[in-house]
Amino acid sequence: MKPTRFIDSVNCAIEGILYTARTQKHMRHHFLAALVILVAALLLRVSPVEFMLLSLAISFVLFAELLNTAIEVVVDMISPEFHPLAKVAKDVAAGAVLVAAFGTMIMGYLVLAKYLFPVQRRALGMVGTSSEMGTVVSVILVLIVVIMLKAVTGRGTPLKGGVPSGHTAVSFSIATSVSLNTQEPLISFLSFILAGMVSQSRLLLRIHSVREIIFGALTGTVLTIAVTLLFRYMP
What we know:
mainly alpha
């Protein structure tokens, strides 16, 4: 029955949000990302207008995810069996969430970049730039460590499967070297985005698990920073 009181309508709306958060992992990811962004905005002391823009962008993503879930539920109710048009409806609704998320990423970048990039530039400067020899040594060392770890664990081959992900380790090693050599936050950000896309491909192909991907990313990044510091302080 349609609720007749305002408080009942509010309760129904909250139940819808809770259902979406409980059943849709993407909604939980959106909530977590929103929490991180808003806390970062408060810590960085962004202006009221910037905070308002971030809040509106986040609300738009959450709204799109709620609408997407509602459409999926209605489609499943009307067409329990597979139907091409049902797939189109779900794909279009998911596309709306993707567009909203992409717009929010642009908004977040425009608002937070001027606060975060100076901090990142100082952090890169503390490590220093990597020499040509240091970059080559970093990649070779990462490859050797990956092969040794796979040999110890007895899982996977040098190019497929096992702990850690070799593709992820090498891609994050290269991204770290690019970041240290350029000392440019935007180039660094894009480099790690590209490394993340390489890692995502290993997940989509079901060659590696999330744990193996994370281990690979840490291996590539930490070893590259360690080699850079070693070459920097060598006499």
